[in-house]
Every structure is written in structure tokens, then in C-alpha cells.
Automatic annotation (TrEMBL):
The keyword Transferase applies. CDD domains: NAT_SF. It comes from Mucilaginibacter ginsenosidivorax. PROSITE patterns: GNAT. It holds the Pfam family Acetyltransf_1. Residues 15-152 form the N-acetyltransferase domain. Keywords: Transferase. The keyword Transferase applies. This is GNAT family N-acetyltransferase. One of its GO terms (molecular function) is acyltransferase activity, transferring groups other than amino-acyl groups.
Length: 152
């Protein structure tokens, strides 16, 4: 288990952040993404499993109970895409999302990257605290947006 940013405000209260994928409750993550998130409703469990397998994942736990999640798609050299960030409702308003973000941006494997990106509909204020801003040259960015493609 890897824990970062030993912040006593959280660790003294039984919280940890771990990158150990074996601790992740896939059912809880899948159910949240599929049923409660605005960005991944309708996603298949197979897709969630494959995404977790091929990403850096951060789980938030309180005394072994899952509290939150974030995923980073990265080459660990030049680029990182932050996605699927959430804290379960019963653990919100404890500043866990800020601690999670602090942990992610300070992770030793994610230092020196040329670009980070993310998409959000409602958490701009959180991410701005960690250096995120609107894309400086959106005319250079392109995408293929196909959220309902079924996995093969």
C-alpha cells in the first residue's frame, strides 16, 4: 500500500490515500460511475475494470472503508489526464477532495509533466486551487466523443 501526503488532519482521523489497486472496491466504483456520476452513466463494468487496470488509481479510505476515488491516465513523462474523481456522499464536506488532489499532484511519478488535463462541469473552483485553468488554446484541441461505444 502506498500512502502519500501524510497530513495529520486526515491520518489522525483514520483516513489514508492508497494507490494499491487491490484495495479498490470495483463494485462501488462501478455503481457510482454508472448510477450517480454525470459523466459516466451507462458505462459498462468491463470498461470500468479495464480503465482501472490501465491507469494510476488513488483510493481514499477511512479505517478500511472506501470513501473516494480518482484515476489518472498518464505516460508518467509528459502528460496526465485526471478523471473519475469522486468522494462518496457520506464523506463529503471533510476536505477529502482537496487532500486527494494535493496527493495526486504531488505524487512522485507525476512530477515534471508538460501537461495535465481534465474535464469538469461543476468543480472548477477545486481544480483551480491546484493550478488547473481553462485550456489556453482550445482551437488546437480536438476530440472524438463517443461515450456510448460498447467495449469489444
Amino acid at each position: 500500500m502506498t500512502t502519500f501526503i501524510d497530513d495529520s488532519r486526515f491520518t489522525d482521523n483514520g483516513f489514508i490515500i492508497s494507490t494499491d489497486k487491490h484495495l479498490l472496491p470495483i463494485d462501488v466504483i462501478y455503481n457510482y460511475l454508472n448510477d450517480d456520476s454525470y459523466w459516466a452513466q451507462g458505462i459498462s463494468r468491463t470498461t470500468v475494470e479495464k480503465a482501472i487496470e490501465n491507469s494510476m488509481c488513488f483510493g481514499v479510505y477511512k479505517k478500511g472503508t472506501f470513501a473516494g476515488f480518482a484515476r489518472v491516465v498518464t505516460d508518467k513523462a509528459t502528460f496526465a489526464y485526471l478523471c473519475d474523481v469522486f468522494i462518496l456522499p457520506e464523506f463529503r464536506r471533510l476536505n477529502l477532495s482537496k487532500w486527494l488532489m494535493q496527493t495526486i499532484v504531488n505524487d512522485p511519478d507525476l512530477q515534471g509533466l508538460r501537461r495535465w488535463s481534465l474535464a469538469t462541469a461543476d468543480a472548477h473552483g477545486l481544480y483551480e486551487q491546484f493550478g488547473f485553468s481553462k485550456i489556453s488554446k482550445p482551437e488546437r484541441w480536438m476530440e472524438i466523443f463517443a461515450p456510448y461505444i460498447k467495449p469489444q
